[in-house]
């Protein structure tokens, strides 16, 4: 059966939205996702601030209550009828995150389960036919076919097949 | 570079010893590892009891203070000079275990790091040349060369290259 590996942050989960909210709280700013998408200069300023102020990623609770991306649940449930689905998240950098990510998956995607969940650092040792991910570092070293899921930080990337939404994923695979 | 995937429980860590201790505490028994190794009937009784009384695996703290197997640290450190080493542990079944396993690795094997640590369910999607593991379910579905690390529960297995100690691993790979 064709195997699809699916990343969590900014693919299944709207992690960028949570990051924007946390950074706004921390710096008393008012960044908004649509503005970041439309304004390259603002986006560069945002990511410069973020790289200096991202300790909340290591704090308890960050990964527990992130919003699910629109239609992710329904499309992944349907994909599971035709493909072997594994969730592959680069989570070992964040020791507190893994239990929270399991809880999150159990809450929103109870049909996946721990047997098909992988938390790792490097993803290049994952054997799958497709990897749907938002980070070039994961896609460019992947041995199967990489699929880039659009996120504010990867809009400049070219050279990858790109999907913008879970409807795009459904159109490609279903 | 040749890649070796190494399991944690009963390969790097003496998990069977901890299990025996926890079960003795729970059932007020006095099982000892050498007796279990020598006596098949006792071993069967032990594993029957264990399968009914293993809730401690899901409790906080179980995986934090397990003893390191003799020479594991020194041999893995040397392997790292010649091979790409990944730690691959079937840990997603135990939500509390992953932070504890990261702490344990950081304490005893600080030269590995989160980038080369994988927590998963099924291991058959791991791409490596060798897998050193104590469980047949992981070895028989592995796409590279499986190496069976002896543990009380796998003494009956045949058909795999077997190592009994980390000195055996060193003799094979170094």
Automatic annotation (TrEMBL), chains A, B:
Signal peptide: none annotated. It holds the Pfam family NT5C. InterPro entries: 5'(3')-deoxyribonucleotidase, HAD-like_sf, HAD_sf. GO terms for molecular function: 5'-nucleotidase activity. GO terms for biological process: pyrimidine deoxyribonucleotide catabolic process. The active site is at residues 7, 9. PANTHER family: 5'(3')-DEOXYRIBONUCLEOTIDASE. This is 5'(3')-deoxyribonucleotidase. It comes from Sandaracinomonas limnophila. The lineage of its organism: Bacteria, Pseudomonadati, Bacteroidota, Cytophagia, Cytophagales.
